[in-house]
Amino acid sequence: MLSSRRSLLAGGAAMLAGTAAGGRAWAAEAEQPPGLNALAAPKGLFFGSALDDKQLTGDPAFLQRLGAECGMLVSEYSFKWETLQPEQGQFVFTRADALMDFAAANRMRVRGHTLIWHEGNPPWLEAALTPEGALAMMYGYIATVCGHFRGRLAHWDVVNEPLSPEDGQPFGLRATPWLRALGPGYIDLAFRAAAKADPASLRLINEFGLDYAIDWQETRRTALLKLLEALLARGVPVQGVGLQAHLDAAEKRLDQRVLSRFVADIAAMGLKIVVTELDVRDDGLPADIGVRDRAVADHARAWLDAVLPNPAVLGLLTWGLSDRRSWLNDRFPRKDHLPQRPLPLDTELRPTALFYAIAGALDAVPGR
Ligand code: G3I
Fold this sequence. Notes:
The chain is α/β, with parallel strands linked by helices. It has 14 helices and 9 strands.
């Protein structure tokens, strides 16, 4: 198996894709490449994708490719508070359990996203987050949800997007209802509750805006490192960092040295790293698909080559597998109204240049 895959990788009509990042290049002429998770696994990594649970029905061709490419899944929505507890006191695991069943049937792991966040919450929650009520609310929710999935999730994003240095709060924390109700220690409380309710699941802080050599992102990187140091000094059971990696192909200030050093600083704390939500917005690029795809692929490859080789990195997921669905078209619509092409498969489920960039980056990671 390995020899046939390697020969496919080596001889599969891969044309120099002009990637600036070195390593084996990939191009659309390659025969059907091996699954991305099949490429990742020999390197001690995994590849996976997010999906909207509505994709679990009605699109068998997509599900077939999901199973062929991915070893890990995460739900865009079904493990969030507004889905799991739409009404106070009423837990609804139906949609999350459907994803768990699909993953189990396809021998895929699942990561939980996310327990404590300032978004994705039901309307009734914010009013319940009083200084008196917030702790019981957090403990009850985490105990119930982590208890429901106990032993079955690879990871939990215990706290999502806690940083917003511009809010002027301690440690650059975002001014969320959780911070207002419980103070900066809300993060400690969440991680300790998750560790008690599901000790087997790797516990991460998941964050965006950490990718580029620009001032506001350097401020975020510094704030995250200081937050992690403080948490670890207090014995908080945080085990890893999720780098969301929502990239922008039009952003020129991608400095691989800055990225590699940041990842090394996290690893030096004994923490693991997961690339949790990779996609590459192309709304700042011309309409031409060839130009966009090449720029998206080269940008992602440069980012991945700076991050994946660190032994603390466990794997990567894209925030969607096919351009058939991407949050980016809602959040950052192109001015020409063309759909964006941020993901490894196009709307016809064909590998894009980004697919081959991810494949090449995985293949270039030194064996562990
Ligand atoms: O599917 C339901 C539908 O049943 C319901 O009737 C309808 C009523 O509003 O909502 C539908 O769900 C929407 C869901 O996306 C569909 O996937 C929710 O309204 C909508 O809020 C939800 O948005 C998600 C968003 O997080 C907020 O939770 C996006 O899908 C998801 O891509 C986005 O993902 C975030 C990560 O969690 C954190 N990092 C950034 C990333 C992108 O914003």
